[in-house]
């Protein structure tokens, strides 16, 4: 995989064409100004203003997607659990030092009520970033097999929300700083707990990328992958169909992130555009997957690892089969392994015949419910996706839902202060 800093303006344009529909109006501006990969990774709000991206919601969408590219470009070979904890501790230390420095200033007046300075807000933001990165790492196989991390992740989400709300509250400077110090102290304790709970191999092993080629796809046979978009805008494989092309490779597992499809980077893309890329060549697909470390031999893997389903049979009548359905089996397993299962929700197999391709080689994906009025090509390949997975959640949105990921699928998508047009 070539570094994103080496992208040409054409690479940037091709990547932007997969982003949110509301951003397509700006593609021509990026093309006209010949923005390359290095410029893209350093792009700022002011740069976007000059490119004609005036709406704050649209700027946020671009910058969030660029953040994903930055993480992919700079952290792919270096990030591991230990390094992420170190970064988070460093950010906590910087924030605490910032507060101590303010209080040592002779002109400091903690009894006044005023907005925090830009430097102070920057320190808070620089703590939330590593916290989100650590949260994303804990939310992947095999760490989903450690039940203790379920509560840890919830704490991180709540504490990050506390940080963002505290700096907006109407209180004295001293009270605000005390609340921030309390949150940072708890986050520091989470760092210690995480390192104690995790086995040595999982602390130091980095992610790796692997090419997987799906070929010899027969008519009437799909790729056999179940894909779900995470809260942070990544596309994660949640399982494969038994004996499908994806399953036969023995290289695709739950928790793998789809980085490229046919050599096109799809990080930050809309799900429907990822689908279109997967459908591009009926004869096969080349995937680049980002894989997390699998741990040591004595580590108990997450129950999601290597999850496979048998292709469902057509049902002529709901009452004809008395056997336990896949969904009921999954419900039973969730009662036994609820904390781990809920960390990465695997949707059940589709309840209709699995016929993703027609005789002409066109794909028809049965992993989603279809509507006769829905334009062809918007459904996800071999996946059963909830409406909320088409957009990404912020940390604050995730907390406001107040329900588990499975229950959240029944609720409408809630975005951070954005309208439907992302304005």
UniProtKB/TrEMBL annotation:
Single GO MF annotation: kinase activity
Quote the cellular component terms of the Gene Ontology held in the record.
cytoplasm; membrane
Entries under InterPro entries matching the protein = CNK1-3_SAM, CNK2/3_dom, CNKSR, CRIC_domain, PDZ, PDZ_sf, SAM, SAM/pointed_sf
Q: Which residues form the PDZ domain?
A: 211-293
Please list the GO biological process terms of this entry: regulation of signal transduction
User: Coiled-coil annotation: which residues?
Assistant: none
CRIC domain: residues covered:
80-174
Q: Where is the composition biased (Low complexity)?
A: 314-329
The segments labelled Disordered in the record are 297-334
- What is the name listed in the Swiss-Prot or TrEMBL entry for this protein? Connector enhancer of kinase suppressor of ras 3
Q: Which organism is it from?
A: Acipenser ruthenus
């Amino acid at each position: 995989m070539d570094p994103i800093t080496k992208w040409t303006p054409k690479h940037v344009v091709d990547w932007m064409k997969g982003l949110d529909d509301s951003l397509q109006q700006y593609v021509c501006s990026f093309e006209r100004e010949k923005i390359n990969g290095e410029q893209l990774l350093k792009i700022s709000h002011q740069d976007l203003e000059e490119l004609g991206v005036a709406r704050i919601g649209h700027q946020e969408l671009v910058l969030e997607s660029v953040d994903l590219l930055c993480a992919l470009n700079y952290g792919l070979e270096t990030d591991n659990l230990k390094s992420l904890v170190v970064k988070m501790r460093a950010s906590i230390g910087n924030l605490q030092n910032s507060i101590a420095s303010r209080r040592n200033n002779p002109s400091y007046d903690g009894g006044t009520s005023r907005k925090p300075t830009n430097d102070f807000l920057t320190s808070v933001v620089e703590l939330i970033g590593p916290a989100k990165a650590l949260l994303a790492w804990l939310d992947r196989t095999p760490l989903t097999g450690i039940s203790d991390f379920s509560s840890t992740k919830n704490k991180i989400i709540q504490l990050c929300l506390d940080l963002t709300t505290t700096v907006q509250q109407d209180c004295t400077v001293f009270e605000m700083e005390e609340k921030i110090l309390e949150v940072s102290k708890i986050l520091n304790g989470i760092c210690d707990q995480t390192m104690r709970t995790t086995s040595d191999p999982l602390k130091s092993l980095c992610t790796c990328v692997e090419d997987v080629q799906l070929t010899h796809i027969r008519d009437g046979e799909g790729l056999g992958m179940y894909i779900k978009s995470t809260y942070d805008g990544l596309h994660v494989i949640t399982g494969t169909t038994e004996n499908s092309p994806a399953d036969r490779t023995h290289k695709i597992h739950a928790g793998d992130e789809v980085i490229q499809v046919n050599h096109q980077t799809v990080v930050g893309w809309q799900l429907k555009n990822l689908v279109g890329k997967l459908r591009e060549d009926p004869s096969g697909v080349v995937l680049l997957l980002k894989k997390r470390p699998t741990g040591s031999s004595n580590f108990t893997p997450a129950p999601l690892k290597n999850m496979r389903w048998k292709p469902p049979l057509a049902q002529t009548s709901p009452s004809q089969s008395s056997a336990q359905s896949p969904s009921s089996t999954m419900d039973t397993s969730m009662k036994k392994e609820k904390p781990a299962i809920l960390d990465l929700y695997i949707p059940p197999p589709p309840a209709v015949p699995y016929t993703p391709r027609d005789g002409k080689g066109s794909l028809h994906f049965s992993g989603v419910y279809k509507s006769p009025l829905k334009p062809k090509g918007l459904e996800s390949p071999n996946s059963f996706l909830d409406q909320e997975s088409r957009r990404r959640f912020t940390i604050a949105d995730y907390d406001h839902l107040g329900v588990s990921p499975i229950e959240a699928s029944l609720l409408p998508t809630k975005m951070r202060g954005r309208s439907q047009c992302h304005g």
